[in-house]
Amino acid sequence: MNFLAHAYLSFNQPELLLGNMISDFVKGKKQYDYPEKIHQGILLHRSIDAFTDQHESTQRIKQLFKPFYGLYAAAFADVVYDYFLANDSQEFSQEQHLSDFAEETYTQLANQSVFFPENFSAAFHYMRQQNWLLNYRHTWGIEKSFGGVVRRAKYLSDASPAFSVFEKNIEQLQRCYDEFFPAVKEHALGKATLFSTSPTPP
Question: Would residue 90 count as lying in a domain?
Fold first, then answer.
């Protein structure tokens, strides 16, 4: 899952949100340097990613991108899911709702910036300045996100095949999202609930 989905699946719990959003920027034993609730967010992120990678819908999406991007197909699937989540009327009833969610997410993260890993600080600056979370709703925003995947990858140079795959298969991708998102939401809520009822270490 990409940034919007990880933010949404933090269920408006600020510390869980921070851990969920910084997880990919925290390597190895560094995860244990954070307060317990933020660490739980890191674990939530990784549980969501594992669930996503194993889901049949994700496997089908990856097959569409794999001829062009090989092992990077999963990263493009993550972006695809954010597009459909941003346009999901069951989760975001209107653009203003998504806009409000995005601003609240940025605020909750900024209030905890003391815990930002250095490399996340730079990403967050551009995320907020360019309003990535809102822009996932638009096809041009997804095209830019595909470009970001390519820029961060060591062996990729062209994002245009990804956008072509997205446009040509949008109905199939929608069906994959419709099958997948209720399942991952249930999974994430179960994990978040378990964390909230777990005793906090002294």
Answer: yes
Domain count, the chain: 1
Q: Show the domain range for 28.
A: 3-197
- 7 within a domain of the structure (yes/no): yes
Please give the model's pTM, rounded to 2 decimal places.
Answer: 0.93
176: tokens are 């994959």
| 202 part of a folded domain | no
Per-residue pLDDT for the chain (202 aa), expressed as one digit of tens each?
789 999 999 999 999 999 999 999 999 999 999 999 999 999 999 999 999 999 999 999 999 999 999 999 999 999 999 999 999 999 998 667 999 999 999 999 999 999 999 999 999 999 999 999 999 999 999 999 999 999 988 889 999 999 999 999 999 999 999 999 999 999 999 998 888 765 444 3
Interatomic CA distance for residues 173 and 176, integer angstroms: 5
